[in-house]
Design a protein that fits this description.
Strand order of the largest sheet: 5-2-6-7-1-8
Number of strands: 12
Helix content: 25-40%
Shape: elongated
Strand content: 15-25%
Number of helices: 5
CATH architecture of one domain: 3-Layer(aba) Sandwich
CATH superfamily of one domain: P-loop containing nucleotide triphosphate hydrolases
Bound molecules: adenosine-5'-diphosphate, ligand LXEULUCI
Largest sheet: 6 strands, parallel
Radius of gyration: 24 Å
Length: about 230
């Protein structure tokens, strides 16, 4: 029997894969063990004979450029990339076809996370394990991490220990006054905190910010007063 006419639609024939794809998402604040969980998951897949690769954002060069490294020093070689959709080409089409599992660390830094997960899991039959921050230091949605939840088979939110009181920490507090969303750093810049100490900690920053604004306004006002006074004299 001949295949049905395509009516002008290009039919892309993809190789049938042994298994259906999967997407697993691991989120949480910094120091919650996201990278540890990602490595554990990917290594467990490798132990069953599946072929694995890990990608991390090339922006995060804190501990190594070509390895995923946890805060307590466990390492695994990885592909440092600025975007995900170039992975297939860089990895090589043949090697990609044989690949079963793709781990993605620092997922908040990849703008093409959603498209990559769709293609890798839905079309190419890969198991994709995504680890990243769900929220930034202001507890706003970070990058595209939350966008892939509707694509996921499983979602795991991990917690850390609050550095102030030792209770469960859900949030990441920035200890410095920098206000840009992306700021690479570790324990020198960030700490995991519970709700109470996030609110208190933000209170400190908010107070600092209010003081700064008040100070600047005061300086501007003083300058205006001085200028006005100069104009009068
Ligand atoms: N406040 C902290 N400062 C530095 N290291 C920490 C802190 N809290 C926990 N850790 C260590 O970090 C490990 C988790 O590291 P990692 O898996 O890289 O976390 P994540 O990827 O979520 O940031 C913990 O097992 C612990 O040893
Ligand atoms: C909260 C927050 C974090 N970052 C950066 C800091 C680190 O380089 C990574 C997170 O690493 P981890 O593996 O989860 O420890 O993200 C940022 O740029 N902006 C933020 O608000």
């Amino acid at each position: 029997m001949s295949p049905p006419p395509s009516h002008g639609v290009d039919l892309v024939v993809r190789p049938t894969h042994r298994r259906a794809g999967e997407v697993h998402v691991i989120v949480g604040p910094m120091f919650a063990g996201k990278t540890t969980a990602l490595l554990r998951r990917v290594m467990a897949e490798a132990d069953t004979g599946r072929s694995v690769a890990i990608i991390k954002s090339s922006r995060d060069n804190r501990y190594a450029t070509d390895a995923v490294v946890t805060h307590d020093g466990t390492k695994f070689p990885c592909w440092p990339l600025s975007d995900l959709l170039s992975f297939k080409h860089k990895f090589g089409a043949d090697a990609y076809q044989k690949l079963d599992v793709i781990g993605i660390d620092e997922a908040q830094f990849f703008g093409d996370l959603y498209d990559f997960c769709c293609e890798a899991a839905d079309l190419d039959g890969k198991t994709v394990v995504v680890a990243g921050l769900d929220g930034d230091y202001l507890r706003r949605s970070f990058g595209s991490v939350l966008n892939v939840i509707p694509l996921a088979d499983t979602v795991t939110k991990l917690t850390a220990r609050c550095e102030v009181c030792g209770n469960r920490a859900f949030f990441t507090l920035r200890k410095t006054g920098e206000t840009q969303t992306e700021l690479i750093g570790g324990a020198n810049v960030y700490m995991p905190v519970c709700r109470q100490h996030y609110t208190n900690g933000q209170g400190v920053s908010v107070t600092k910010e209010a003081t700064r604004i008040a100070f600047e306004t005061h300086v501007v006002q003083n300058d205006l007063v001085l200028e006005t006074a100069a104009a009068i004299v």
